[in-house]
Amino acid sequence: MGINLKSADLIYPYFVVSGINKKEKIKDFPDVFRFSADRLIRDIWQLKRLGLGKILLFGVPDSKDPEGSTAYKKDNVIASTVKKIKNKFPNLIVMTDVCLCAYTTHGHCGIINRPKTIDNRLKKEKFIDNKKTLEALSKIALSHAEAGADWVAPSAMARRQVAAIRQALDKNGYKNTKIMGYSAKFASNFYGPFRNAASSRPAFGDRSAYQLSYADGKKALREIEDDIKEGADIVMVKPALAYLDIIKEVKTKFNYPLAAYNVSGEYAMVKAYCERSREEKKMVLEILTGIKRAGTDLIITYHAKDVAKWLKE
Ligand code: PBG
What's the predicted TM-score (pTM) here? Predict the structure, then answer.
């Protein structure tokens, strides 16, 4: 007996750019690339052959503005890519990240008050314009749902983002589109390679006004509870490794579908060590089995393709 990790437990994240024939390397992010839609589709054939069936897409736009409007404009990079993917792979579960940080010139996850002058040590309410942010997030989610996304995954940590998106989806006839809430998202130091991939590093300040403090586990539980009440179909703890206690507590307390994000910095640490050792397979299987054992139903991980390969051996 014990925990059996399966390919069906895993979600593979992809970074998407516009244009054609692009497969770009990313700084400090070994074996992860930014793909244009055509090259992405080629990669998905491979992923499907390995037995994986779920992907999570992050858009990297050509241009940015303070409102992040390229995230929801017609035929935005995610919407146009999702259409192409669902056309080729109707049964693949396609999830999309719903956030503003890769699309805003300032790199924050919401629309901010008085850009430049604001001090983000101020409370979240003063720093982020929550109402405008919810409007933008709803438009993004809707554009992804219209394109055929099966799940949308709001990651901006805006107050009542799940409720706002659920309402917008329902009103427009997308009752079957599911929501994965990045419910307990910590202001972590493990997001570095991801920010290189999405060029989403904040231009000033940090995300501590809206992401959670790693010292405060109680707040994380409240955020999870809010997302469940607001209608999330699955909730998430992110990152995973320094937060296994939170994962366990959430599962025990709520017994609700739960995902964990094994984030870019966690992945890059293992990859860096394993350049010089032969332990990668054993280490990764141990790590991911541990995350599952703590109480997760799904794990978002850049190791997913390797794991699927190893599980087939
Ligand atoms: C933000 C977002 C982040 C990640 C996913 N969505 C990072 C951040 O808050 O800057 C990080 C994921 C990873 O590190 O793999 N919308």
Answer: 0.95
